[in-house]
């Protein structure tokens, strides 16, 4: 609630009276007048659908959707990437938020065709026409550009902020809709992600749902489960912070733009405060910080004993490390990724492990934090250990993760 109240007071201070507040300001402030309490750890984690590049072109439809971020909340208007066939037929489950995890092979190019089918922007009240690049038409026909974050990509396929589509109604230059990106996948195995990149509205498009994982495989990380956990034991965790209106819709600071947004509720893969049932084995978590401005200093704590669990980091933004590194906590800035191994084998059946965060907001913290909008999110999600056996390989600090390669 601090966010919306502060924004409303700031508006009144500038305008001098409530009548000076633009209609969409007043409407959004009223809707956000009481942020709903979201029960913790009652809804299961959603694991994104996987699309494997088998040599055929990958098609994504960028579209409007509705999504329920928690069973206690109403439906929210969102944006999503939907995998489709060339003729537009849906592939896999319906995407209502974020998009599928795309898995590719190093050395084999991927042709990805994206089609913008957005008919209205779910956060139109937060568009700020004074920001360079924002267009009046974005409320009804939002521009998009698909950027492969961390990819070794040719300029014409980089999805730069000006390389948006479709053409806006004024006839300004843009890329054809649909547009085909060509990714060479020439780099080592890594956990990348793709997201919107449109000038002036990137923050709103990503917050509304346009982000997802992109995994490059190679001989060091072939996805077979022989050397590293795979399949059900390799799970992306896209962590974001959000604020919700009373009706369950997404709240974002209304226009005029503020430089940092901090939500009051953690969302992982589109679910607020999720839990995930795990087997007694090792898991590989591909962790993404998908927040606008929030840093996370993550740790794992066993609820019954209060003990902090060690985990291994096996990769970062650029790919696999030479060897795993043992950690008790991990700091992630917005946009950063980490590749982690968590071992649940030593925990008893019924054990509950909480992912927690103690990073100051704004980071690294100061006496100004509360006044600037900082609100602490201490708990992110839960893992619940069952009585079945899971992936039982042996990833340790002595494991050699990648062959030594010559960089050219």
Molecular structure report:
The protein is mainly beta. The protein has four helices and 23 strands. The strands form four sheets. Strands 11, 12, 13, 14, 16, 18, 19 and 21 form an eight-stranded mixed sheet that branches. It has a six-stranded mixed sheet with strand order 1-15-23-22-17-20, with no helix packed on it. The protein starts with a helix and ends in a 19-residue tail after the last strand.
Compute the gyration radius: what is it?
A: 21 Å
Low-confidence stretches: 1-33
Strand residues, percent: 25-35%
Shape summary:
globular
> Roughly how much helix do the residues carry, as a percent range?
under 10%
State the helix count.
Answer: 4
- By secondary-structure content and strand pairing, the structural class works out as mainly beta
Distance between the termini: 51 Å
Counting DSSP E segments of at least 2 residues, the number of strands comes to 23
Q: Give the biggest sheet.
A: 8 strands, mixed
Order of helices and strands: HHEEEEEEEEEHEEEEEEEEEEEEEHE
The whole-number mean of residue pLDDT values reads 88
Key traits:
about 400 residues; 8-stranded mixed sheet; about 10% helix; mainly beta; single chain; 4 helices; 23 strands
Overview in brief:
By secondary structure, the protein is mostly beta strands. The chain has four helices and 23 strands. The chain is globular, with a radius of gyration of 21 Å.
């Amino acid at each position: 609630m601090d966010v919306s109240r502060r924004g409303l007071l700031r508006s009144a201070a500038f305008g001098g009276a409530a009548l000076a507040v633009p209609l969409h300001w007043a409407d959004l402030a009223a809707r956000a007048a009481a942020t709903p309490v979201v029960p913790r750890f009652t809804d299961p984690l959603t694991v994104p659908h996987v699309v494997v590049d088998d040599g055929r072109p990958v098609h994504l439809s960028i579209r409007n959707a509705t999504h329920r971020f928690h069973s206690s909340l109403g439906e929210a208007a969102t944006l999503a990437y939907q995998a489709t066939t060339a003729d537009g037929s849906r592939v896999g489950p319906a995407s209502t938020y974020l998009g599928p995890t795309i898995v590719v092979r190093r050395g084999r190019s991927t042709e990805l065709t994206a089609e913008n089918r957005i008919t209205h922007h779910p956060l139109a009240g937060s568009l700020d026409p004074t920001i360079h690049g924002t267009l009046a038409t974005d409320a009804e026909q939002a521009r998009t550009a698909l950027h492969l974050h961390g990819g070794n990509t040719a300029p014409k396929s980089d999805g730069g902020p000006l390389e948006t589509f479709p053409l806006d109604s004024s006839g300004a230059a843009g890329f054809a809709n649909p547009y085909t990106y060509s990714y060479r996948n020439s780099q080592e195995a890594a956990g990348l992600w793709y997201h919107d990149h449109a000038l002036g509205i990137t923050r709103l498009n990503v917050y509304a749902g346009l982000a997802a994982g992109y995994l490059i495989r190679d001989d060091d990380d072939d996805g077979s489960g022989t050397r590293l956990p795979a399949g059900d034991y390799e799970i992306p965790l896209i962590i974001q912070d959000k604020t919700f209106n009373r009706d369950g819709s997404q709240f974002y600071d209304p226009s005029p733009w503020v430089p940092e947004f901090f939500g009051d509720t953690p969302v992982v893969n589109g679910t607020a405060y999720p839990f995930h049932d795990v087997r007694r084995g090792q898991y590989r978590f591909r962790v993404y910080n998908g927040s606008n401005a929030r840093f996370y200093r993550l740790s794992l704590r066993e609820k019954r004993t209060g003990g902090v669990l060690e985990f291994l980091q096996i990769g970062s933004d650029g790919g696999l490390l030479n060897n795993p590194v043992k950690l008790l906590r991990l700091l992630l800035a917005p946009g950063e990724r980490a590749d982690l191994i968590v071992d649940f084998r030593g925990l008893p059946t019924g054990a509950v492990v909480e992912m927690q965060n103690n990073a100051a907001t704004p980071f690294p913290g100061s006496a100004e934090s509360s006044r600037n909008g900082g609100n602490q999110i201490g708990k992110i999600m839960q893992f619940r250990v069952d009585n079945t056996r899971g992936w039982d390989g042996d990833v340790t600090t002595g494991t050699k993760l990648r062959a030594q390669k010559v960089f050219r």
